[in-house]
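thoughts on both lines:
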Amino acid sequence: MHYAHSTGDSCRGDWQTLPDHLEAVAGLAALMAASFGMQGAARLSGHYHDIGKATEGFDRRLRGGPSVEHSLAGAYLVRKRNWVGPEKLMADLVAYAVAGHHAGLPDWTGDGSSLHARLAEFDPDGLDPAWTSYLPNDVDTVGLVKKLKQTDQPGFSFAMLGRMLFSCLADADFQDTEQFYARVEGLTIDRAWRRLADLLPGFISGFDAYMTNKTTAAADNPVNRLRAEVLAHVRAKASDPLGLFTLTVPTGGGKTLTSLAFALEHARAHGLDRIIYAIPFTSVIDQTADIFRDVLGDEHVLEHHSALDEEELRSRADRDKLKLARENWDAPVVVTTNVQLFESLFSHRPSRCRKLHNIARSVIVLDEAQTLPRPFLIPIMRAINELANNYGTSVVLCTATQPALGKKHFPKHGLPLADRELAPDPEGLSRQLRRVRLELTGEMDNDALVSALADRPQALVIANSRAHVLDLFKQACEAGLDGIIHLTTRQYAVHRRRILADVRHRLKHDLPCRLIATSLVEAGVDLDFPCAFRAEAGLDQLAQAAGRVNREGRRDPDKSIVTVFKPVGYTTPREIEGLIGDFERIKGKHGDLFSPAAITDYFEEVFWRVGDDLDRECILEKLRLDGALGTTSFAYRTIGENFRMIDSGLLPVIVASEPEAAKVLDKLGLKDVPSGALARALQGFVVQVPPKARARLMALGHVRLEQEGLRGDQFAVLQTPDLYTDGVGLLWDDAEYLATESQIW
């Protein structure tokens, strides 16, 4: 008898046998794959994934011997079977999944770590012939073939199917292993969440009650009546067929609640399993998750993002269950980030891919869809279309500024979005919900901006760089203006949330509030200023800035002015320069620059200019398929390593000035606490700085690496507390001066 997992019992009485593990994983993987019709291939992957443990070498490993590679044997044996026609391609997908279920999906070709090279060197003679008795008799009739809808990129479609199979196998293997050791230790692992179908009646009645209370408390004005009309119209379209949708509603039109209502009704109409709400930035995810918890109940909403504060969770039991659910999104409602969603869809790592099978048969709402990263836009559109075509998923592109992703405007790679708009008359809504007047002025230096702020007790200024924002903040403070507030990524995320809470308090109670910020304040942050000044940028960014002005429509739109200025003395980032040029080419063609027609025209200019850079890493070229020969050539690992939506070139500095961060740092080096978990817990206390600046801070002793060698140099901790102030955040520009004079501005 061979074994899959061992315990401290040298008599092996409570060890898990290999046949038991293979059968359990096969059954669980098949159950997970049922949502997209691939039970047969998933079951096959489960039966073969640990066949490599049927060796003397692995038996020695279980008795304390050296590690041995056990994942390749199953991949080799699967491909050696007498598959014919399309089943050969499916067997390849199973082989990728089996070979990568621990180390990650491999590339087919490349260096010695490629699957092709490893299979060529594999010697099956080391396997105990008993392995054949561990497989069911009907293994040849598992029904591997899944009919995928026709596409002009069949390689992409099959590669995504491979990732979905990999997801089922990795998750099933992890969960069966987890359950085995839990039983041995007498523990109970609670992964049980109530099904969305059972919760929907309560969710929808709760939503109606929430809206009734909200309407009762709100004034009966044209804006609120229009929001109600939009909501009713969108809910009425919830029975439309599954697929892709757009929801184009101007800022202040109630997009968040309207999209949630559609997701609830659409899930009920089609019996879907999950609602996934993806948001571009962690700076706004809290407010959305809070709304969802208010409407649906705290216990049903899974929040998954890097800045999540574990201390805010209610109890140890809740923390444990939510941590487990974040591994594979096994919850009825998930609020996450675009980074989590799309980097998982293109990942090769088991930890990231485990959640993918739970994306099938979901409603996905992509909030602020215009922020999808342009270097990966074409692969992302392919992934969205695949989810809709082959995985029973509906995707809603939700924004005030639709990024022209339909085939009409994007012929080669566009999405089938014709007649799939949920909102009633977006052009009419744009006119009715007009909140601001846009003024395009010329140059404004910091003296002019400070003078303008002096005349306005409440105003928002958005610049394109942290340096400009800091200089302007200092000058405004020196001018003696009240209520000057600085907001940039110089502050860690937990601090920024407190700053935004203070800003909302000041605005609500008519206190002086002059906020000087970078663009992080634009995407969905719920603020309502009487006016704003925005440094030149792309039209989508200008529209987002305008969304922070007269948001509730209580002021005269013609007096709620967004002034677009050209900065003096500061270099515009190259990417923004290109977007400014795109805006310049279309601004004379439209009377209302925030109308859907103007936004569409602008994005067409952007996509035409960027061209091939919309797939910067050539991901589509790395997923090749030869159906005639029955061969695949997928570069899973290379794609996973290169698909990074946030690649700022900056390095982290941890500011452990709060007790929560200090408690996490105290756990560094403990054997039973993974460094990855600690890094995630510290994300809310990280400031990203330029590499040269961090090196200088370290050379001067202001920053020190804690536990050097743990996952690189991510635990770089600030040692000089005075370098971080409430007003500014982390100052690294004058580190040498600060080191010698011990002064802080």
In short: Residues 293 and 301 are 6 Å apart (CA to CA). The radius of gyration is 27 Å. The mean pLDDT is 88.
